[in-house]
Every structure is written in structure tokens, then in C-alpha cells.
Specification:
With about 350 residues, the protein is an alpha/beta fold. It has 11 helices and 15 strands. The strands form 2 sheets. It has a 9-stranded mixed sheet with strand order 14-13-12-11-7-10-9-8-15. Strands 3-2-1-4-5-6 form a 6-stranded parallel sheet, sandwiched between helices.
């Protein structure tokens, strides 16, 4: 690291923004210099807590304080304007929430801008820092599963909330292999009214270039994880090989059957544990270009493209090759063609509870 800590602005002070602000503030490699939110109470609380510049105008704030890191934790419909603000501020790294965009076109536009500007990007797929996620990765990498032929992920959370999480960790467990083609199916229109507008249920098949097959499901109708008590943590991600399997439950530890025996361990999604290494590795990448962040935007883009390909498969009714060509906004196309038929839940909750 250089002689001075990296200067940080955090825009958006909801739950995730507060986690980011607190973690940057606690890390001596960073200096939180500004916060921004359109909610005056949140803004004043953060200004008082951290003693930093505060504004409801992100552009004015960043031009005034000139951050090295521009972090925003906002609703998904305002990605591109904030990316532009981060670039214009001169930031070296932009950190932001998943999903990276609301359409393939927007994602491509974002990637073109940051690549042209030479700005690093990091996307919040930080669950991978959990000890239980790390343990499953360790088992897969050890070769104890034999030849891995299948990776999978499912969540009762709906698509635009959770699918890029699932795909990111599936790709991680599969050596970050690229996808060749995808197929998908979807049902239900209730969740299009949500701020993360999505089909109620989405399922996809992914063919990876290394021969591994992936299966992903999200939303009402995805398999329940009865070992976990809260919907946000009802996620299962894992890998199957010729000698066994290993999987993580976001809210319920890990388990594996390998040629060496049967194993399990603890672990649960915990922002207090997952956020510090996620943020610390941003400083590593800023210090050294060769230390690319595991949650870098280039990998997040590949995962988002897989998710959008699955959406296009529903609309086009067939296999979709990757990388994706330009096309219509995926969520709008899906909402137009999906029937009103309600989704049949497979979890303990009812469709009404899920869609409420």
C-alpha cells in the first residue's frame, strides 16, 4: 500500500450500504471521506457517526472529495448513471451491488465504459468469503470428488435477487469456466412488481466449456432447504464428481461425501465475517494489478450474461449460445410472454406468503 489510505465514498445507506460504510471505516487501508443518500435521516446519521462529508447529490460529492474508491449500494435500476459518476470522479475502483445491470445491453454498456476508462470494478458476491463456502471450494480443489461433472445452485429468493449469486459460486466451484450455451424455463409474474423485478420461478441448464453441466433454480418452486430457517439463506450450492459431492448451505454449514468418508461442518452467512476480507482484497488489487479481486466485474459480467441467456431461452424457446448478441431487454420480454398462471411452491411457505 502507498503512504496514504485509499479514499472512499459510499452512496446508498440502506442495509448493504451501512455494511460497506462500516467495513471501509474500520479498515486502516481505507479512509471513508463521504457518504450519500436521498434519505435525509440516514444521511445525517452516517454523517454524525463517521464525521465525513455528506450529500444527497452523488455527483457533487464525488467531484468535491475525489475518491479512489466509489462504492454504491442502490436499487438495480440506477446502475449506469452511477457508474458514469464513479468514472467522472476519477475513482480507481468502483464497487457495487449485484445484479450488475437490468439487461444485457446495460451490462455491456457498463463494461465498455469501465474498460475504456481503465477502472477496476468489484461486485458484491461476498458470500464466498464464508468459511463454509471456502471449505467446499477446498474439497473440490483437492480432487477428493474425482472428476467433477455437475455443479448446481438453488435459492428460494427470486431471480434478480439471487441468481447471479448462485451462478457466481457455481462458476467458482467449476474453476470459473465459461459457458457455451444455456436453456431455461420460467413461471409466474408476481415478482415483476418487486424492485428486483423477476419471474416468480426460474430454472436454467448451463453447459460449460470444460464439459461440466450446471443446474440453477431460483424463486417460488425452487427446492426448499428445510435445514435453514430464513428465505434469504435458503441457498444450496455444490458440485458432484465421480467420487462424491460437496455442498454449502448459505445458512446451514457444509457437507460432503468423498472417497475419504463423510464430512460436515458449521457456517452461516455473516456480514461481520464476510465483508472485511471482501473489502480488504479491494486494497490488495489497488496495490497490485496482478491481485485481481475474486469478485471482479469481468467475472460478474460472465455470470450475469449466463442469467440473461437463461431468460432469452424462455422467450426464444430453445438453446441460447454465449456470448450473447444484442437483443431486447430480457425482463421486459419475459413479462410480455409469461402467462398469469400462479406458481406452485415447493417450500414450506405458500405462494401468497412468497409473493407478498
Amino acid at each position: 500500500m502507498g503512504t496514504s489510505p485509499y479514499r472512499v465514498v459510499v452512496v446508498g445507506l440502506g442495509k448493504r450500504g451501512k455494511h460497506h460504510a462500516a467495513t471501509f471505516h474500520a479498515n486502516p487501508r481505507f479512509e471513508l471521506v463521504g457518504v450519500c443518500d436521498i434519505d435525509s435521516e440516514r444521511l445525517e446519521a452516517a454523517r454524525t457517526e463517521y464525521g465525513v462529508e455528506a450529500s444527497s447529490d452523488a455527483q457533487a460529492l464525488t467531484q468535491a472529495v475525489k475518491p479512489d474508491v466509489f462504492c454504491f449500494c442502490t436499487l438495480p435500476n440506477v446502475r449506469l448513471p452511477l457508474i458514469n459518476i464513479g468514472i467522472e470522479s476519477g475513482a480507481k475502483l468502483i464497487a457495487y451491488e449485484k445484479p450488475i445491470a437490468v439487461s444485457t445491453k446495460e451490462a455491456k454498456d457498463i463494461m465498455a465504459l469501465v474498460r475504456a476508462a481503465g477502472v477496476k470494478t468489484v461486485v458484491s458476491h461476498q458470500h464466498r468469503y464464508g468459511q463454509h463456502y471456502q471449505k467446499v471450494k477446498e474439497i473440490i480443489a483437492s480432487g477428493d470428488l474425482g472428476r467433477v461433472h455437475t455443479v448446481y445452485g438453488h435459492s428460494t429468493g427470486w431471480m434478480m435477487h439471487m441468481m447471479t449469486h448462485m451462478i457466481d459460486y457455481m462458476r467458482w466451484y467449476n474453476g470459473n469456466a465459461d459457458a457455451e450455451w444455456v436453456m431455461g424455463q420460467a413461471a409466474g409474474k408476481g415478482k415483476f412488481a418487486d424492485i428486483h423485478g423477476s419471474p416468480d420461478y426460474m430454472a436454467g441448464i448451463i453447459q460449460f466449456a470444460n464439459g461440466v453441466r450446471g443446474y440453477v433454480e431460483t424463486g417460488a418452486g425452487a427446492p426448499d432447504v428445510p435445514e435453514v430457517d430464513y428465505w434469504w439463506r435458503k441457498c444450496r450450492i455444490g458440485a458432484q464428481g465421480t467420487e462424491g459431492f460437496a455442498e454449502v448451505l448459505t445458512g446451514g454449514g457444509w457437507r460432503a461425501v468423498t472417497k475419504k468418508g463423510v464430512f460436515s461442518g458449521e457456517g452461516c452467512m455473516d456480514y461481520d465475517l464476510d465483508m472485511p476480507p471482501y473489502v480488504d482484497e479491494m486494497a490488495d488489487w489497488l496495490d497490485d494489478d496482478s491481485k485481481v479481486h475474486p469478485c471482479c466485474g469481468e467475472e460478474a459480467f460472465k455470470g450475469f450474461e449466463i442469467a440473461m441467456g437463461i431468460c432469452r431461452s424462455v422467450v426464444d424457446r430453445g438453446q441460447v449460445q454465449l456470448p450473447l448478441a444484442d437483443g431486447a431487454p430480457e425482463m421486459e420480454a419475459l413479462e410480455q410472454i409469461l402467462p398469469e398462471t400462479p406458481v406452485l411452491c415447493t417450500t414450506a411457505e405458500t405462494a401468497e406468503e412468497y409473493l407478498g
